[in-house]
Amino acid sequence: MGIGRSRIVETTDSLDVVNFTTSRTNGKKSKQKDVSRSDAKVDKFDETKLLNFYSAVGINFQNIASNDAMISSKINKLVKEGWELKFVLSGVESDAGKGDGTGIFITRFIFYRE
After folding, report:
1. Where are the domains of the chain?
2. How far apart are alpha carbons 48 and 21 in whole angstroms?
């Protein structure tokens, strides 16, 4: 109830996927243990805070409308900068039942610019 941490997150750092990719030739031997997860983390990114959908009394429609305005503003800004929205992808990790109490919903907007 009101404890979500909704954000627009945009990396300002870059990584090379080649540095984190290994190849298997027989399906069993892997060199992934030579790849450090900590090296895959970016240090530079922008965060835009969004509002929680829920409050103590239920769904907060003002917050939903405010988030829609914030996301529309971000998309319109990117379009003005020459980016084209190509794909919208969603993912969910839902509450696993008794004792879990957590879940996440994520929406990814994929933009393209020549």
Report:
1. 1-79, 82-114
2. 31
Q: Which residues contact 10 (CB under 8 A, 6 or more apart)?
A: 45, 46, 48
For the whole model, what pTM was predicted? 0.74
CB-side neighbour CA atoms (13 Å) of 50: 22
- Gap between the Cα atoms of 106 and 84, Å rounded: 20
12-66 residue pLDDT tens: 999 999 888 888 878 778 878 788 888 889 999 999 999 988 777 888 899 999 9
The pair of structure tokens assigned to 88 is: 């919208």
Measured in whole angstroms, the distance separating CA 13 from the mean position of its chain's CA atoms is 15
